[in-house]
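Tokens for Glutathione S-transferase kappa. Go.
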Amino acid sequence: MSCLPRKLELFYDLLCPYSWLGFEILCRYQNIWNISLQLRPSFLAAIIMDSDMEEYREKVGGDQRIQVPTKGIYGFNSYLEKLRKQEYMKNELQYLGKFCQVPIEIPRDLRGVLIDKGSLNAMRFLTSVHIEYPEMLEKVSRELWMRIWSRDEDITEPWSIQAAAEEAGFSRKQAMSLLKKSSTEEVKNKLRENTNTAYKYGAFGLPTIVAHMDTKPCVFFSSDRIELLAHLLGEQWQGPVPQALKGKL
């Protein structure tokens, strides 16, 4: 008798290119490993803010009046203001994109994308898709990632989100209906719930992967822990592109 699939939860935000890498790798393995992959759109900025506040509350004995200094989107002090780290990120993502066969290209205005524009509207839209058409969440997520991290296109304006939805297979009417739903309290609460769940698991950034094992959930951060995840699951790791998919991507 075969064992039931292990539930894997992937908490992700479109703003994070490492989330895209983890997303694609796990999607490739979802029909190879004995797993049930569940996608959880989340809001990275809230997780980082909560992590920072918790750290500072501990340092000052619970005084919540202290002002948290601005951090970069990945949790490093002044991340985007330090040229060396920004250049490292650009180079690393180029290497990782080729290695993982994910077409990542760094946006020209990286700070504008990460700090000024953000991803809240897009993540609410994905949450709306998750509620209404969960079977379409993978495709729509991928199309939005292609816009922001491959073609340097907007994902904040309604027209750009609608374009991604239609490219994924939705009709114009369906896309507009999902956009309208994105502003409802139901969607806002669901995105907040996903984000809070990730934080309760111990997330301090995204992507966060939660593997539900027999005794307890096991939590992994970032896309480079999937090999370790495979070991924990007792599955074969074949690299970011499984043998069965080589030449097909």
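Residues 8 and 37 are 5 Å apart (CA to CA).
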